[in-house]
Recover the amino acids of this structure.
């Protein structure tokens, strides 16, 4: 959102356009989560960069997502506060579940006398499909 605000400032020097672009941005990308997969981070950066530019272009035309939609409000401060509520109140449990999912996929290979013993899993999530 900071980059979008910077783009809006460079294009317009108009605080209302900056506020509107931030609201549009929150509406568009608030559902993107970091899943710890470094390769997919580049894809997310690309997605967000495109979204920032789109949010600014919409704001320049005085187009703003409705304050009745999703987590955004009519004002930028409340929209940011709503996003912060998600980050503070919901994301910790999301982070834990992402870690559980990633840990389920981690398997350790043990080498004993030059023989590899594959797939000694080091973690079993309580949410695993194998648990009954």
């Amino acid at each position: 959102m900071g980059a979008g605000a910077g783009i809006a400032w460079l294009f317009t020097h108009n605080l209302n356009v900056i506020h509107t672009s931030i609201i549009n941005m929150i509406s568009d990308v608030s559902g993107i989560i970091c899943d710890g997969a470094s390769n997919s981070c580049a894809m997310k950066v690309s997605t967000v960069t495109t979204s920032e530019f789109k949010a600014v272009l919409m704001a320049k035309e005085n187009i703003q997502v409705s304050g009745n939609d999703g987590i955004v409000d009519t004002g930028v401060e409340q929209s940011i506060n709503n996003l912060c509520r998600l980050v503070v109140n919901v994301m910790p449990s999301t982070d834990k579940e992402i870690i559980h999912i990633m840990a389920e996929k981690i398997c350790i290979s043990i080498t004993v006398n030059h023989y590899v013993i594959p797939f000694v899993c080091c973690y079993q999530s309580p949410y695993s499909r194998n648990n009954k």
About this structure: Strands lie at 107-112, 115-121. The longest helix spans residues 38-60. The chain has a mean pLDDT of 83.
